[in-house]
Queue: 3 jobs
Job 1
Amino acid sequence: MKIERDHARFREIVKGKVRENLRQYISSGSIVGKEGGEAVKVPLPQIDTPRFRFSGKDRGGVGQGQGAPGDFLGPSDQEPADGEGEGAPGRPGEGAGAKELELEVSLAELAELLGEALALPKIEPKGSSTITAPKRRYKSVRTVGPSSLRHFKRTYREALKRAIATGEFNPAAPVVIPNRDDMRYRSWSEDALPQSSAVVIYMMDVSGSMGDLQKEIVRIESFWINTWLKSQYKGIETRYIIHDATAKEVDAHTFFHTRESGGTMISSAYELAARIIAEDYPASDWNIYPFHFSDGDNWSQEDTLRSVALLRDKILPASNQFSYGQVESPYGSGQFLKDLRKHFNLSDASCKVVCSEVKSKDGIIDSIKEFLGAGR
């Protein structure tokens, strides 16, 4: 239908606006979706929804009744021009304000826009990226089966059809008794459904030097990272680790809203991540993506050396890529990024350590490009 074509064309126009302003949306965090959701709402205040507007009768104007040369064609006496309303200056108006258009965009569409904007390469999964598990679905009916799976409605219908066809049905006494041939049972078939084939392990320093702005940057960046990875795999799992001097696994809400006052020992987070990988995610079957966000402080050089050893010996051999994002903080030293550059050849294309420095929200999109640009 024509209206459907027009609606599809309008959506393409709006998606074009999203594409043009994607950097702004990412840095502002205005389209970060809810955990587990499959779509987000994108605010687009600069676009008006097309619609017809009808004025009242006999209000004058072009094409409204008789006119004469020299007639003024601007706003009529009955309709004041913009800025010339009847209300007193400084007093609130009574009418509705301008409406902000919200376009619902699926995460798949959002990932496509992100990939186009950043020219991200497709990921070539390693290991058993197509792990499947059988799942039973009851979507058919058969004539044999256990009593627990008897389909009462279909059984009654078969009995009723038989009674009517044989003349046994009496409308005055509508009693229908199914016999053995009338019995119907629910039946199942097994579908091979994909299991999660990738895991993202987020680690974040929550010591006193990491403030609300730093956590907001991590929250926005992790949403876009997850959006892209979900478009590359049939399913992903996400694990969250917070640390100061000690590390623990938490849920997503706790991850983004916890703040501690202790010191920082990065090795505690790497030890826990290595244990999670070893216990739950065999490297031969899983695509593993550890991400660590910090302001670069660490307790001691000794702990830094231990962190580097954990990375080199346990985390990197099992991972597709290890990503370190250093979020600038007025209280952080930024030393850990220098240490990683010292111990790993980050310019080598084969190096699985990728580092990014995020100085503000405006740097989020460049950080995402650095993390995902290798296509691992």
Job 2
Amino acid sequence: MTGGVRSGKSRHAEALLAGAPSVVYLAPGPVPDPAADPEWAARVAEHRSRRPGSWRTVETADVAAALRAGDPAEAVLVDCLGTWLTATVDGLGTWDAPLRQWREEIEARVEDLVQAWRTRTGPAVAVTNEVGWGLVSEHRSGRVFTDLLGRVNQQIAAASDDVLLVVAGRVLTL
């Protein structure tokens, strides 16, 4: 499920899985310290308040390992791939290594994520930002991020049964 920032995609993803007996909600992390980023903490709290009590939340930087853990038939919601990519990039540190080497490491992690996604047999929903419409700075890091998230989105879409686009709360099946 893809869309722009604040398009309603997370809310729709939650509704898709509302009838599942149990859901693992994977929140790519690390989740920022609420004291350091109160606006982000408020968003996280709002998302948590909407989820049913039967849902299990896993906040992790290693989404691929979390996808492989537990019952592959259990419903899973990954929210959001853009956050996962940002945390992955942050985890690699500065761009001291040559860009090619740095990009290869990220692409290897993307491939690991996609392979883990394919292990799921139950309902699985991934929320992501559509980078073709987003405002991304026209500098090297912005272009690299756009390219990488576009690649993540394409690969997860190729490994999925359906792709949905959410615009202004409206859902389109692609």
Job 3
Amino acid sequence: MKNRITSILFCIFLVLFMLTFCIGLPIYCRFLYYIQIKTLNLESATGWSYDTIKTAYDEVLNYLTLPGMPFGTGKLKYSESGAAHFADCKVLFDLNLGLMLSSAAVLVVIIILNALKITEPVTFAGRKPYFWSAIIAVSIPVVLGIIVAIDFDSAFTVFHSIFFPGKDNWIFNPHTDEIIKVMPQRFFMNCAIVIGAGLIAFSSALIAADLIISLKNTSKRR
């Protein structure tokens, strides 16, 4: 039985999964940061060793991604205000993980229903639901990329104003919160690039799959 509502839900939750999955790439793929310790010349810029920088980053990420971990920055100094900001970040990290897992669960349920022929996906303008999910998802990095390219500093400020309303503890003093010295603005820009590249790659694969399947079906009908 064809079900338009199920197909629409599949589109929505696929976009949500793609977005949260790609946001998770720079979070859970720590090697992407380790590489940047060298490429951003953080050792020479800070005077700290590779191990000191890596340990500080790992302690912060352990706190943000693992349950029950205390906050710490290795040998680097931090303030109560800085620790409070990372506590706010942890809420967002947990939310992203929760949305990724829950959206994945919904997608699995819908795929099982389709496999059992309980429901059947509906095409929109001759395209499968995942094609439109990919179109929506790929437009996100394109639009945000244009905004960031115009003025990254302003975009960075607006981002924090949206996700940390009424707070300014995200503006770190490098003398009291030394972690900011090893997490420069260029690092966050690179994280945004990884997220955008992930969305573009994910979306491109889905669009290509739909086009290939469509061409094969057209050839069979001839």
